[in-house]
Amino acid sequence: MKNHVVVVRKLLIISLLFGTISVRAGKLEKAYEALSIYNYFEALELFQKSMKAHPTGASYGLSLIYGSKLNPFFSTDSARKYILVAEAAFPFDSQKEKERLKALEIDGLAIERQKTTIADVAFELAKSEMQVEPLSRFIDQYRFSGKVSRATEIRDSLAFLNAVKLDTYSAYYGFMKAFPRSKLYNKAKGLSEIRIYEEKTANGELSDYEEFIRSNPRNPYVGRAMDSIYSLFITENSVENYYAFIRNYPENKNVSTSWRTLYELYNRDYSKERLIEFQIDFPAYPFREEVQVDFELSEMRYLPIKQNGRWGFINDKGLLMIQSEYDWVEGFNDGLALVSKDQKAGFINKAGRVVIPLKYDEAEQFYQGFAIVSKNGKYGLINKADLVEIPMVYEELNEFSQGLASVRIGDKYAYMNLEGKMVFDTIFDFAGDFERGFAYVEIEGKRGIIDLEGQVVVPIEFDWLENFEMGLARVRKNEMYGMYNSHGNLVLPIEYDLIGPYVSGRVLVARDDKYGYFNAQGKEVIPMQFDFTHEVLGWGDFQNAAVRIKRRKLMGLIDTLGNNLLPAIFEDILPAFGDLIPVKKRGLWGYCDQKVDLKIKYQYEQVRPFQEDRAMVKLDGYWGLINEDDNMIIPFKYDDINLLDCGYYTVSSGGLIGLIDKYNEVIFECGCDKINDDFSPFIQLQCGEEMTWYDPVTREKIWTSIAEEK
Fold first, then answer.
1. Please, what's the b/e burial string for 287-297 (b: 16 or more CB within 10 A of its CB; e: otherwise)?
2. CA-CA distance, 260 to 257, in Å (whole number)?
3. Torsions phi, psi of 578, nearest 5?
4. Are 415 and 430 a contacting pair, CB within 8 Å?
5. pTM score, whole prediction
6. Closest to 318 (Cα-Cα) out of 657, 669, 646, 682
7. Distances (CA, A) of 390 to 220, 346, 419, 457, 686
8. Which of 535, 528, 468 is nearest to 502 (CA)?
């Protein structure tokens, strides 16, 4: 009835409109005039004749005719066809044609409204049948409609109820195959998995569980089957029984438990002699580092080196510990280093022994005893004994964080724990890593945030959002921004044009070309009084508890309460923590104190804030270093200069990099391609083919590849 009223209203508007149309109107106008007096036959003929010359207007009119139940031509399929033609043609119409359409009250909004009307009529027709097929047809044909989600829910519920009535594995599997994106997919999957598990293991025999695991390696009840095998096989608490289990079921998830139990049974007194005997009797023990902890090199620092195109390791004294034989290496983590040779990856220990063979296509470093590995494009998880904890059956397995990781199965994502078990009922179109107890997820193009229990903290309804940072998460919906806290409370409503990141206890909020700052509770602390432009995005966030503001094209500085730190009299300011603040006037930079007294005159082209009583500044096109008295420490002759964590500076000239200390003593001239301190405090320098390791504490080179090659 509602859609019928909409059609009548449109015809009434057309009728009123044609009271003002000139007698010189063309076919299109005459068609709408015929439509206004309900002459559907003449209107239909005129619209069809106008299609070539006026595709938008004619298609729109045809959609009105076919979409109305008031005439014999009613057909939702035809109405849909022609409104989509109108929508496609409208952007390509000339300005003159659009003016003509405007006179007929036809524009993009009118077309969108007609699309919605037709979709609503089609939805009501499909819903009235309460069958899977017509609802599926509606979903396929009206993907643009806001009713698709409701139609999908009804369709999926009907199909799911049909499967529940049968309550068989094949019924649930058929539902999953037909509706893989359904919100009920996971329920059907869970029911199908438990049904097949119960059927295959009904007799409770060891062979039943073995066959179930072989046939259904991805089933979540594989773990339960493995536990059953473990319980049935271990009949006595002896070393022999546990060792037999390990040999017979090397892929069972209880193997690690068996090894540890065996170890405990064997080493009753933990004497040195007994530990040596254990290593002799069980050389395959996966946790050998625990047995040999006093003999291994666990406290020694290892640094990667490259010689003749191959990688190895030295220790922190520069002694060669592992020969350079690998295509690439990563640093040691959890006692093992990831290495690669001939496009295969594995792991070595600090003795240089390969403890996990180089057999994986890809691998990541060990973390808390586990590493992600892949073969043939499938990912899984291994432990330090190279035992599979999670089978390599997943298209994607992301890093574990807080005991959980997201995995991709087909085009869907789910979360699993370190036992390889799926932990939530919901599956997602995308699932991010957990950080600080939260992860963002996506379903049907909408994002939200869940916690470690799988509970939705931020509704899955936003076009964009970010994970919680300092307890707050920004969200965007329909081009408007808001903010949630980690308790799931909306602290800033979805009504702002922009919300910046949360820094120094404040967040920038913009609306109606004005901006101000709010706190974490959503309270306005600094009123929205400043003019907002996109330029503000580059400098409008707090730094060091201060933020720049602009008044009458000049910059000032305020604190987190909005109090003036520096008046708006400068061309630019860099917020800085300390006594001297970088300020700019007449195109040049200087430094003033918090009383606005100029301490270093305006003379520099670029500057950076003072760090440890020194500042990097640019003069006459070159960078140097000054102290707080404006005395030059490092001369102005470098293209760039940067401070390392160890207190040294990298300087560049002519595209090459050098190393100097804060007293301008040149450690290495500008001849290097790369300098990094990723292995702080040690500094790695790559100069052409030569690699050098430098110790800033002893101020000595500890290793260089050229010397070693000689």
1. ebbebeeeeee
2. 5
3. 150, -170
4. no
5. 0.58
6. 682
7. 11, 17, 7, 29, 39
8. 468
Number of Cβ within a 10 Å radius of residue 138:
26
Contact assessment for residue 573 and residue 549, using Cβ atoms and an 8 Å cutoff: no
Exposed/middle/buried for 663, CB within 10 Å: 0-12, 13-18, 19+? exposed
Q: Alpha carbon 192 to chain centroid distance?
A: 31
- First-to-last CA distance in the chain? 92
Q: How many other C-beta atoms lie within 10 A of the C-beta of residue 675?
A: 22
- Give the pLDDT score at 669: 93
Nearest by Cα to 534 from 561, 508, 572, 571: 508
Q: Which of 383, 385, 359, 358 has its CA nearest to residue 372?
A: 383
Give the span between the Cα atoms of 301 and 303, in whole angstroms.
7
- Rounded to whole angstroms, the Cα distance separating 67 from 36 reads 15
The pLDDT score that the predictor gives to residue 525 is 96
DSSP 8-class letter at 397: E
3-state DSSP call for residue 526?
strand
Which residues fall within 8 angstroms of residue 11, CB to CB, at 6 or more apart?
A: 35, 36, 38, 64, 68
Residue type for 602, please?
A: Y
- H helices of 18-131, in order, are 27-36, 40-50, 55-66, 76-89, 95-103, 108-129
Q: Could you tell me the sign of the dihedral formed by the alpha carbons of 252, 256, 261, 263, in that order? A: positive
Contact residues for 85 (Cβ-Cβ < 8 A; gap 6+): 55, 59
CA atoms within 13 A on the CB side of 466: 14
Q: Distance from CA of residue 408 to its chain's centroid? A: 14
**417, two tokens:** 């724990």
pLDDT of residue 477: 97
Contact call for residues 615 and 608 (beta carbons, < 8 A):
yes
Q: Which residues pair with 660 in a beta bridge?
A: 649, 666
Cα-trace Rg, the chain: 36
DSSP string, 252-263: STTHHHHHHHHH
* CB-side neighbour CA atoms (13 Å) of 413: 20
Tokens representing 596 are 């606005």
Cα–Cα distance between 486 and 17 in angstroms, integer? Answer: 55
Q: Read off the pLDDT of residues 77-129 as tens digits, 9 standing for 90 and up.
A: 999 999 999 999 999 999 999 999 999 999 999 999 999 999 999 999 999 99
Q: How far apart are CA 363 and CA 343, in angstroms?
A: 11
The answer to whether 36 and 86 are in contact (CB under 8 A) is no
Closest CA to 582 of 609, 555, 605: 609
Ranges in the chain, pLDDT < 70: 1-25, 237, 264-265, 267-273, 275, 293-296, 298, 384-385, 387, 707-710
Provide the token pair at 600: 């270093």
Q: What is the mean pLDDT of the chain?
A: 90
Under a CB-based contact definition with an 8 Å cutoff, are residues 94 and 119 in contact? Answer: no
Q: Hey, CA dihedral for 364, 365, 366, 368, is it positive or negative?
A: negative
| Predicted local confidence at residue 7, as pLDDT | 45
169: Cα within 13 Å, side-chain hemisphere: 9
The answer to whether the beta carbons of residues 438 and 457 sit under 8 Å apart is: yes
CA distance linking residue 596 with residue 576, whole number of Å = 14
Residue 75 DSSP symbol: -
